User: Fold these one by one.
Assistant:
Number 1:
Amino acid sequence: MLGKRNGKQTVKLKNPPSIVSAACIVGPKEGQGPLRLYFDAIVEDEMWGEKSWERAESKLMRETFAKILNKGAKVATDVNYVIAGDLLNQCIAANFGLRESGVSFFGVYGACSTMAESMSLGAMLIDGEHADNIVCMTSSHFCSAEKQFRFPLELGSQRPPTAQWTVTGSGGVLLGKDGTGPYVTHVTTGKIVDMGIKDANNMGAAMAPAAVDTILRHFKDTGFTPHEYDLILTGDLGKLGKEICSEMLEKEGYPISDRYDDCGVMIFDWEKQDAHAGGSGCGCSASVFAGFIYQEMVKGNLNNVLFVATGALMSPTSTQQGESIPSIAHAVSIRRSLS
Amino acid sequence: MLGKRNGKQTVKLKNPPSIVSAACIVGPKEGQGPLRLYFDAIVEDEMWGEKSWERAESKLMRETFAKILNKGAKVATDVNYVIAGDLLNQCIAANFGLRESGVSFFGVYGACSTMAESMSLGAMLIDGEHADNIVCMTSSHFCSAEKQFRFPLELGSQRPPTAQWTVTGSGGVLLGKDGTGPYVTHVTTGKIVDMGIKDANNMGAAMAPAAVDTILRHFKDTGFTPHEYDLILTGDLGKLGKEICSEMLEKEGYPISDRYDDCGVMIFDWEKQDAHAGGSGCGCSASVFAGFIYQEMVKGNLNNVLFVATGALMSPTSTQQGESIPSIAHAVSIRRSLS
């Protein structure tokens, strides 16, 4: 075991848990994007038959939870914990979406880093023999997020080119003690990084230094180089944040550009979908990971992936009070096989 | 190990971590209450020299974190993780209060159950050999909470007798692999319970069934009876919720009234402080536990305590949309000695 001693931020798991199943459900815009064939379901409209966007987001989470179990051939009583959170105030998408699950629940808040945060905690709890099966999941919703974080949609506010588009979607995984992979082998837990950026329309620039900090720490703790991975995947830095992240890592002596992508860049069609700097929101990295990445790993087209979800830990209140945007990134190392 | 198998919600820890230190800082009203001698510091006014209540709450968290380390004779680089959350939208009290800590950070959201949630995760991570030292903490602030959840303070709104008073305070513990106790021996993680109560001014009634569910599950999983404990302590059910909890458990065959108290009932003087149904907020159970309970355990006046923090998982948005109040309770069993 690598252990957490000597100031290391990375834990090497002794008994790497398997990702037994993964599922995701997304909204109509995401369903028109380049990854559409990888989503388990595409919702026709943002309300999905509910009375409010918040209820629709809870339904996304509830139905995704059911799909994760179904694809893993499990029922709720097989699951020891669900670890979940979202972007809404007081995490109501998760709290209401999972209230009928009947499973012991840990609510987490890591902004858009939530998918990797929940997988980090879930993997360590299984590795430590505290659970056999854990569902880790998250969601976001374009309309509920715009309403809460920015402006009423009805205003039709113009968005600067650096702005990102919150993904409507929920995604998650079932981690299990038993399974045939892919496996979570290392967990690198980020520190809060704040470089003083205050532009809430340029989250990518705020979050990139946190991603760099965690990726560098992962390499230094493990002794790995970028060649250890087929793919290094950040959560939702978007086009600008991705460039910053790549440049900063190259300056540090870790060039990753030949094996680096970002879920926010991947989820929308750059030419046709007018998503500005790319996708964002917890649901972005969750649905790209649970859809495209997981399926490509199972098929054998990807073998070793470093999944680094990134979160901007601000709120409208902190922005109104002139605060900068603290950010965080959590990394999990995932391998198709342990041999 | 009791294990999570067979549908059990309780984990018995193999290597129970020690509560190495505990600290809490509270506001002026809490500092006039019956537990005033147990707090590490009492802030003279709710702003504490900051420009906003939110910044004051972040400062409460930052200074409490420093006190926890100081009392435990540790520095930040000794700590592997900090697990923290609060009630503010996007958990900004924790995110901004701990951004300079330089410690790997897991943000959690369990409403007022956060203190027990963070201790549950922290205890299992140490038990699983993923960390040596973890700080688990939370905060709440009367003014930032009223502003966010209810009405502007300047309105002087009248409060019904069932309303509770959000505690201004931060509290937390340092859990360590090594130490001389008290020890965290069992973790019982709650499910979300929703009995359909919709009155946001009667949180005690909404949360009591969740507390009952978790306490019953703890007894059934472990085979313990209430006599196992000197004290069963709920987080912030307040006067009404406490009565409901006690009555419900008695009907289930587990009478606890001779060894039962609630942090929300304990923190204010019933006759003199006009706190209606009692204290509430994450900072309530955190400061009562880190102050009074911890010190009385160290002195030997309390030996075995079941700490059950309770959270109401609603938001103003969910209440405005006519939703009920889902609730959760997490329990940790704490023993002064393992012999």
Number 2:
Amino acid sequence: MTERFSFDLQATDGTARSGVIHTPRGDIRTPAFMPVGTAATVKAMLPGSVRATGADILLGNTYHLMLRPGAERVARLGGLHRFMNWDRPILTDSGGFQVMSLADLRKLTEDGVTFRSHVDGSKHVLTPERSMEIQRLLGSDIVMCFDECPALPATEEAVAASMRLSMRWAQRSRDAFGDRPGHALFGIMQGGVTRDLREESAQALMDIGFDGYAVGGLAVGEGQEAMFSVLDYAPGFLPTDRPRYLMGVGKPDDIVGAVKRGIDMMDCVLPSRSGRTGQAWTHRGQVNFRNARHQDDPRPLDEDCTCPTCQGYSRAYLHHVVRTGEIIASMLLTWHNLHYYQELMAGMRAAIAAGQFAAFEAAFHLRRAEGDIAPA
Amino acid sequence: MTERFSFDLQATDGTARSGVIHTPRGDIRTPAFMPVGTAATVKAMLPGSVRATGADILLGNTYHLMLRPGAERVARLGGLHRFMNWDRPILTDSGGFQVMSLADLRKLTEDGVTFRSHVDGSKHVLTPERSMEIQRLLGSDIVMCFDECPALPATEEAVAASMRLSMRWAQRSRDAFGDRPGHALFGIMQGGVTRDLREESAQALMDIGFDGYAVGGLAVGEGQEAMFSVLDYAPGFLPTDRPRYLMGVGKPDDIVGAVKRGIDMMDCVLPSRSGRTGQAWTHRGQVNFRNARHQDDPRPLDEDCTCPTCQGYSRAYLHHVVRTGEIIASMLLTWHNLHYYQELMAGMRAAIAAGQFAAFEAAFHLRRAEGDIAPA
């Protein structure tokens, strides 16, 4: 185990990259998908099961955790790792994005954001300094700068002003974070879909200096085409020797397209949230287990999958427990979905290392185009 | 593995008994507690986890399974064991009790019961013959006679008439079950809280001849004292060389009192249902994790418990996930509760084998009287 945070870029294939992030809590193989453990749990999963899917790192949400159970409380209890029984790396977001999407009565100033909790109406303040403090109290391994993500659609002028505010907050985040060996601070590039603003933002962040760089402000409803058009150039503005993190992405084809364009880390609630609504993801696309076509189907969800769900249960069973609203439906489908996502990442890592990413991508799209297996 | 169903009574201590039921699908150590897998799942648990708690056998509900997914469908899919991924013994109830408690528009005749599904209003008929057929289609290892359990309060006359109907149905169940090596049919004693009726019922069942005998019609709201007063004599009416099953019991102190009185098998939804409402059971009694007294408590639920919940999580965490309504709360508390119940059974088996049941029972009550541990 290393004592410091570092990134080894090990292979490239076109703009796609593979490597390893070293942290005192363990290595993170990149490209990495981070399951989301919103409120100190990856919903419907035990931590050992999350690890068994192949996850090297989880994401925790500062906004949710500061409200319940509270950052000071988590610190008194020994930090988030001990609290949620996950001893590997945790990345925490800054709270900024979720304040804007979830909290009530938000008020934004140069200093930060005041808001009321969506849980109990209590008043809270988030500033770059407080966000750094909360993430330190949680014990986060990878801390994110406090930033502002403008609601879309927005004028270019509004996007520029928001980006420059985020860059001033990035400097304040850097100053407040200080020097914490073994812990990393990531800057977040903003600038919407405007190339010049993205470049200006990247330069501002690099001038400050971070351990890694996120591409923020995407996956907020702009669509895959617009997102990819930004990813065609934005990662190139960032240093090659630091990890690049695309926040909140995404569907499997979003992920493959992002990795192709030079992204190293991603997170998304999709595999776990889908699993709680009867949806499964496979290399053949999405499968809806509410559909009655599965009710007599003795075959597994995915015959090629080695997860416990596919090894132990028929499609008929999954249909039954989805339709009856059983908790095991969420447990089995979330496990499968997270397993599939991690298999996808492992496949891309191997393909990049072998210089075969284009072939991997072609096969990925071909299998999806075939669609789900025909009714039994 | 034996090819036939058999029972080895291995030790007695007073009226308490311990032994092993042999089945082609594995042994069942008695006294045995059977977790309830209502709709082909022990709620919030994976089958491997249920087994890890020490369970040798599950209970499945004929009423729920005949409605969804349907007994014929389960049979086409290879039977209930394969369907729910549990390869050890399964006992199924007859459906009679739940028709009376859950179904709509019930109509009882000498032939059986017609009713409408509480799920979709569809019309169904249950008779002794159809109940035997459904339990055969499910692949049940231990089949229960179709019986009628009168709603309480009821006159002695009504209880007597109901019991005699159940005895006629027991004969029809026996005739319909036929000869199925490796599968067992249990009769169900009725007779309410009237000793003469219990004796008459037991004699009627023994005249027919069953592989095991259940004490039915208890745990339906009569209270522990009335239940124990029946158990003070009713098991003694049954043959010593066959297992005795007390249906739907119960709380830990109910279970200890029933074992003391000669019961070998029990089932109850309590440990799993409690786990889904933030309640835990320990040797110190019940603990409610909604209570704010746990919010800063770094200690495990039970410091002496070896279950994954107590090994990995603080009371503060359990409080947090119960209050935020996270699925992991149901998963962790159900696992602990089932583990505790199985530890309780293992403790009683060892105590009976050692001739120390009275000491075990005294210690059990003493620790409960001490109550939950004081706030941290």
